[in-house]
Amino acid sequence: MSKRTKIVIKTKEAEALKKLREIRGLSIRKLADLMRISHTLVNHLEVGRANISDQHIHKFLEATNFSHQEWQILLKGGVKSKKQERSKILEECIFILGQLPEFKMQQIHQIMKKF
User: Fold this and answer.
1) pTM
2) DSSP SS3 for 50
3) 100 to 32, 53, 105, 108, 115: CA distances (angstroms)
4) What are phi and psi of 35, to 5 degrees?
């Protein structure tokens, strides 16, 4: 990998890598741990401060459990995958739950345990 930490080149690949991480709800540090690389490198790849190799893409996909097909769709800005839609719904549910009083959250918890 060539170093270009002072030069930022924001590519569609860099944006897609960041999107993969965000869809899974992973922090940069958690993803770096899963990929077994430094969190600094993950950040540099996502913001366009480092060149993205096929090996980096493979590690991102493996760590975030996305397929190469989903990667290609994301690169093309294509349709949202079912995983993305599910992630959005989950995010909204967590937000709503966070706004509820404790007793209502406990009631919902009891209901969810039955599923």
Assistant:
1) 0.61
2) strand
3) 33, 45, 6, 10, 21
4) -85, -15
